[in-house]
Amino acid sequence: MKSGPTIQDIAAAAGVSKSTVSLVLQESPRIKAETAEKVREAARALGYVYNRGAANLRGRRSTTIGMVINDLTNPFFVELLVAIERVLAQSGYTTLMAHTAEDVETQTRVLRSMREQNVAGLIMSPALGTPDALADEIRSWGIPLVLVMRPMGVDVDTVGVDNTYGFELATQHLIEQGHTRIAFAGNRKGYTVANQRRQGYLSAMAEHGLAVDDEWIVDVELTPKGGRDAVRAIFDMKPRPTAVLCYNDQVAVGVLHELDRMGKRAGKALAVVGCDNVIAAEHTNPPLTTLSAGADRLGVMASRTLLARLEATEEQQAPVVQYFAVPELVVRESSVGAGSRSRSGSEAAL
Amino acid sequence: MKSGPTIQDIAAAAGVSKSTVSLVLQESPRIKAETAEKVREAARALGYVYNRGAANLRGRRSTTIGMVINDLTNPFFVELLVAIERVLAQSGYTTLMAHTAEDVETQTRVLRSMREQNVAGLIMSPALGTPDALADEIRSWGIPLVLVMRPMGVDVDTVGVDNTYGFELATQHLIEQGHTRIAFAGNRKGYTVANQRRQGYLSAMAEHGLAVDDEWIVDVELTPKGGRDAVRAIFDMKPRPTAVLCYNDQVAVGVLHELDRMGKRAGKALAVVGCDNVIAAEHTNPPLTTLSAGADRLGVMASRTLLARLEATEEQQAPVVQYFAVPELVVRESSVGAGSRSRSGSEAAL
DNA sequence: CTGAAAGCGCTTACAG
DNA sequence: CTGAAAGCGCTTACAG
């Protein structure tokens, strides 16, 4: 810790008081232009570096924002993080990052650390299994919180996706392709997002009068490995499903991969749909049909929601934000060509 | 900024001085166990939160570390970031993150911001085109700097990869598979890493007495799109190369994808090798042969190097660290089966 | 083993 | 338009 010149040093060099220097650094219009220039010149000459920590302590404010992310191995969350960091930086905030790797204890630890660091606000994508009470606890700290992707009750600002609608849309697409036996590769346990996605699938099936065999709901890890396991399970079923809806693109990548290993082609042997539209989904073999809600747009929304909270006074706070983006289906090769309807078309091409 | 109890409040509640409270919080052995317990109890009762910013200001130290990353859309750097963040957190440091998206101006801005935030040290993967002088400038700030992946001269701590050796290894592997016309998809411009990789390729070719046609060095974007462009360029050459060495896995993914679009299979139509061994390389179709130096291991090395600098006194500083991991080649399907040597094998199997 | 005092580098009323 | 003074929440010699 080599310490450089302080406003005191600048004040001495410029022949003014440190109050004046402070005001100049804040670009206060109260200081005469001439004086201000003299001060800026002295600061430059001395190689002055503003000490934001000291300013925050004295001013009882903070310009850092904590970003708590559950899974950076999923590129979707990386896209989200990048967008959020960009928007916050543009508004003069610095991002304190922490990765929880879906571990609730790690999450507790990093939240404590961020509180000690005196963050002005928090954006969090909570780890699976986070108790709902955590949102209340954070509120009790007096730190504004915006949740992304994973809701935790209706009284906390949340930016996410309408998963139920999205999975209805995806299921409907598969039905339109002529599929009637459609599997779901995700997990059966009760986290909100998983439930919504499963529910969207189930209700679209019901709406079209299609029965769902319980074994079609394949409980797997939400990773490529899980996708591979799902394919093996599906090919053991008789009659076997001709399409699979995946919890997310990570699972779908595993599905595409296992099909390839078996010498089969997604889209022909089994129609595959993912969710998230990660950048890589465009370059898988074959390219992946998937639900897109726009990671960048969600990141921008989440940051703006937080910035609005920070800039509003106690009295003028807007009501709780609950924003759920409506996803679109991006149709690519992985879901086209295997259903009975389209199969007749591809047979004609043979 | 709701502010909670301070050490002064705890002191009052526990009936001691704030010096004593401070010492207890630092777990100083100088305080009697009984007194310490009384203080801790009072802190708990009041819901005390340590203010690290105030402590850092007074103690003239800092417990945050800046992490400047050039490209988070490349999963390799994400793996690196995750490893670094984990190690730093374990040592009680907080990570301030910034993403430059390969933009030198953004990088300048975030470095200034981190300096104002009073980071104890910096870990940086510099943006392409960063002037070498930047390392000296950061040193002049008195902030220890560790570079990852991209060296900038020999007098700054650096943790990277022996790219020249790696690309020699990869080239040799392709030659052993019977290939003699091997292309290189990267960029021709003069950044250190690009030069090393190209050089490794060229020297292995030379060593085996194989001529390199200038057009085989395909200058493309270092993205999947670049990989796709490379494939199109290669298939226009006559006689065309039968193998391609890619700058990194991002490029290789594009190569695999374009081959698939053309109805061809990597490994048969064209042998493909990448670099980085990102997690996804295991699940591409076909799986990707690639160079692995271990993102996690590199991240751990980089963090430890920085931690060692922070913990050593001025006099006992170790000499500059220049660590270059020796990569291994992970052979998967994308590079096997297309060379003349192995082709005879596969013909026998037909 | 504990306390009184000084001070880290800033900001912010307040006074002139 | 500018300055003197108080203070943000801590730590650290120093004294006892």
UniProtKB/TrEMBL annotation, chains A, B:
PROSITE patterns: HTH_LACI_1, HTH_LACI_2. It comes from the Bacteria. GO terms for molecular function: DNA-binding transcription factor activity; transcription cis-regulatory region binding. The keyword Transcription applies. Residues 5-59 form the HTH lacI-type domain. CDD domains: HTH_LacI (cd01392), PBP1_MalI-like (cd06289). This is LacI family DNA-binding transcriptional regulator. It comes from Paraburkholderia panacisoli.
